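Hey, I'm writing a tutorial for new members on how sequence and structure tokens pair up, and I'd like a real worked example in the thread rather than a made-up one. If someone can provide the structure for the chain below, I'll link this post from the tutorial.
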Amino acid sequence: MLSESSLPDFEPLAPLDRPALRSVRPSMPILRSPRPEAKHEWVARSVRRFSEGHVPGRLCPQVEISPASAVTRRAVTCDGMAAEIVETTGNSKAEYWMKAPVHLLAVCDHGVRRAGETSVEGLPRSDLRDLTGKMSFIPAGHEYREWHEPQGLTRTVFVYFDPAKLPELDVPTPRLLFEDAVLLALALNLRKVVETPMPTDASYLQALGLVLSRELQRLNQAPLQVAVRGGLAAWQQRVVAAYIEEHLTEQITLAELAQLARLSPFHFSRVFKQSFGMPPHRYHVMRRIEQAKPLLAKSAMSVTEIGLAMGFSETSAFTATFRKLTGVTPTAYSRSHAEAPE
């Protein structure tokens, strides 16, 4: 098992409206078309804030929100990444802005706006109203702007990645309000860590960050997907993928998933394969193996411990499955990805 001393540093951050973090939010109003020299200073402060950080050597939340009273913010941070939940507190207009030397993944867990607009530098703007399940990726150095008048509660998960600490994440392509069932499910898992942070979550948070970066890399390398005729609807893909991620280490029956999608097991199995490219059981196993990879590469856990943590009852079953899907054994994968000693 992981000893407490082997865990990476993990610091839950105070809500951003507390005095402890007021220094990370500039007082300048945002999205007001500031003078060129004022905007330059604003960006410079964002870069300094990234370099200095709320915790020395740590990444801190970067998105500026005005007025601050329009939202509540909670955040956690570990080496190379930070995550926060932003929730609206009413129906008043809120404005968002960021341009910083960090990557940002913005995931709307729930949100409908009466009016608003979202833009990412280099892409056309969008005034989409229902943002639930939508996400945007903003590469380091790109500008992100958004304003909305919410219609009820909105909840957004912001995930910040330090390019220097996560060289695996090389995703320069910006994306605006796209859908990806796997990324959404991972972000919802991350939301739970932010909502109830515990020091023992550090290893899980860091591993989750590595999986997210891997999925972003996969997304960047894959061509833009076109909806598959006859496959699952977007809402069905989101619900099913999220359920699998939340119950990754458990046994999941075909009937459970079919019920979530409101389909018969036979029909669900067919349309699931059309949408995800593989049967439900294989997808479930594949997600387990993908979650195990960063633990094998970075964690002090043994192969047996990782296999058990991923829901395999025996080491032999984990080893055989891992080898079948990757071509190498867990031990060989761990050795090949081990960090070189300093």
